[in-house]
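Changelog-adjacent note: as of this version, every example in the card shows the full chain rather than a window. The one below runs 221 residues end to end.
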Amino acid sequence: MVRRLVFVLALSLVTVPARAQTPQRPISLAEARDVAVRVGPGVLLGEEREAVSRAQVEVAGALANPTLTLQSARLTARVSAGVSVPVPLFGQRATAVAASRADAESVRLDTTVLRIEARWSATRAWLDLWEAQERARTTELAAREAERLAAIAAERFASGSAPRLDAVRTSADRARARAEAQATSASVAAAGARLAISLGATEGPALRAEGAPDLGPLPSR
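Full-length structure tokens:
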């Protein structure tokens, strides 16, 4: 009777509840790099700064607003008006424009650096996600194999052909393998979230690394 109960308990433990499949969006390494370079958070911010710096060049070359003055004299009953326009002389305007252009070029180079950094960050985040997925797949296979061995050991113990020690040991191996599989599954979600942040895709389905890692050529600039 005791062996029959152990066998039934082992079979109930083998049955793993089905987990709801969350929607996922597959993304390749090349696609992740392209998205990061085009619409990464740091890149978008750099492009906005670049647009502001270009506008500053036009502002530096523009003349100041004119000043209108009105004067009246009570004794002579006259009203006089005047308009003054400050005009930068002796190369002041050209110097201001050149300084603004230099600032704009500096911001443009900063944006280029941000694109390279975004490409690198996306590459590293995608590889982390791919590695986590492969590790989760491996640990899931190991957990299923441990469950199969635990079920066989429990069945043999119930039939009297194996000692209880085998059933206890395989049951412990099954619990450890299942815990490792759950931990690696959580690491996949964390790696996907990090990739989504680097791509600015914090909303929508979770990302899933698709395809083999192909680093390709390094950026030329």
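Structural remarks: The chain is about 65% helix and 10% strand.
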